[in-house]
Structure formats: C-alpha cells, structure tokens
Design goal:
By secondary structure, this protein is α+β, with helices and mostly antiparallel strands. It is built from seven helices and twelve strands. The strands form two sheets. The chain has a six-stranded mixed β-sheet with strand order 7-6-10-11-1-12. Strands 2, 3, 4, 5, 8 and 9 form a six-stranded antiparallel β-sheet that branches. The longest helix has 19 residues.
Length: 250
C-alpha cells in the first residue's frame, strides 16, 4: 500500500523559559515529540536522546512496537549516562505516532510515556488518543477532581511515568486506522497547558494546511502566556492506496 501524508512541525522556547527542552522527529514512519526534564541542558539532552534513538532504530516504511521499545531502552541508557549523580534526576516524556501494518491494513500506532499528547481529528470531532501519566490524571480517574479542574491544576507538572529517572520505559499503545481525511496532532504540554481542547478543535476546524495550523497553534499558546516550551506536529493522511509499499509526503 502507499500512504500519502502531509505534515508540519513547529517548536518554540516560549516566553518564560531560557532553553528549549523539547525535541521532535517528523519523518515517516515516525512522528514524535519529547519534553525533557532535569534542568538546563540535561532536559535538552534527554529529549534529544529519545528522538535520536527513534530515528536510528525505526527505519523503513513501517515499524513495530518492538522497534519503539528498543529505541526507548537505548535512550534510557543514554539518559542514565547524562544523569550521572544528579540529585533531581533526568528524564523526558515522549509521545508519537508510527506507521504500522496489522492484518495487511495500515494503522498509526500511537505511543505515550508522560503527559505529552496525541489527538485525532476527523469530521470536525477532536479526540485525545493518549492518556496522561500524571498525578492530575490519576485524581481525575479517581473522581477526586473533574476534567475541568484538571486544567491549570497546581500539580499539573507532576508526571508518573517517563523515560529516564532509572526506570524502565513503559509506553501505552493505541491503534488508529489510517483513512484519508484523518489529522493527528502530536504535542508537548506547552500547548495543552495553554489551550483547552475546544480551542484546539477550532483551529483544526479552520481547515488550514498543516504548516498554517501548526504555526497558528504555537502562536496561540504564546499569546495565552507561553509558560513552557511548546512543540506541535500536525499530520494529515491524504490517501491510502494500493498494495503494500511505502509512505510519501512532505
């Protein structure tokens, strides 16, 4: 099969941070965002280690969950070396979508560790695919706070799963069937910490190109405060045709 994609990626340091600790990879078969933690430089290196290992390990037109996990295991070793004896530890979130084939059908395998997110948009409907690994999400799941209260919660920066911090990386997975007209958003929490889901949906509903949409989302996050680094990948499925083959696009 031949999958035709169009995509764009934008990253910005934001209005309050001195360094950009986000990294991203946007090249078939993988589209991923990592948000580093651990202070100036260390967070940069942690997120770069993850996307670097994904780029090295995941090759060809399609990939597997085994490819993802091998890359994350290698990145975890890299991060451990960087962390050394750091008292606060070093780590990163990572989320993304990988082109895969299951039962001869094409899918995006969406994976996630931490609170960066993947959304899917079709027919004017926006849905969060990933579930945050965060203290606030656990409070929502337990019924202690509402989803509305979770937004801008004072403990919103506490995550419960990461790559690094001397822990084995354990991603969650979801399968999203590829269909023409599907749009994915892969982003760090610098976007979702500033814009609630309805704002995101309105940007997608405008029907602009991936480049224009990604730029508008980042601009909106900066205008809303830009309290964190913000990284956005907007990915469109233009067509899915023919027998097993590869992916193309720009």
């Amino acid at each position: 099969m031949t999958v035709t994609l169009a995509w764009a990626a934008v990253t910005d340091v934001g209005r309050r941070r001195q360094a950009n600790e986000d990294s991203y990879l946007a090249e078939p078969p993988i589209f991923a965002v990592a948000d580093g933690m651990g202070g100036h430089l260390s967070g940069d290196i942690a997120s770069a280690a993850v996307v670097g290992r994904l780029s090295e390990t995941v090759s060809g037109a399609f990939a597997t969950t085994e490819d993802i996990e091998n890359a994350l295991a290698l990145a975890s070793v890299d991060i451990g070396i960087v962390a050394g004896n750091s008292a606060i530890g070093v780590g990163t979130t990572v989320t993304g979508a990988v082109l895969t084939v299951a039962d001869s059908q094409p899918f995006f395998t969406v994976f996630n560790i931490g609170d960066s997110r993947v959304y899917q948009f079709e027919r004017n409907d926006l849905r969060q695919v990933t579930i945050d690994h965060s203290l606030v999400q656990e409070l929502v799941d337990a019924g202690i706070i509402s989803a509305a209260q979770a937004y801008d919660h004072p403990d919103g920066n506490i995550i419960t799963r990461a790559v690094g911090f001397e822990a084995r990386p354990v991603p969650d997975y979801s399968l999203v069937p590829l269909r023409a007209g599907l749009r994915l958003l892969v982003c760090s929490d610098g976007l979702t910490g500033e814009l609630q889901d309805e704002r995101l949906r309105l940007h997608f509903s405008a029907g602009l190109s991936p480049e224009a949409t990604a730029g508008a989302l980042v601009d909106a996050a900066l205008a809303a405060g830009g309290r964190d680094n913000v990284t956005v990948i907007v990915l469109d499925v233009l067509s899915v045709d023919g027998p097993a083959g590869g992916a193309s696009g720009s």
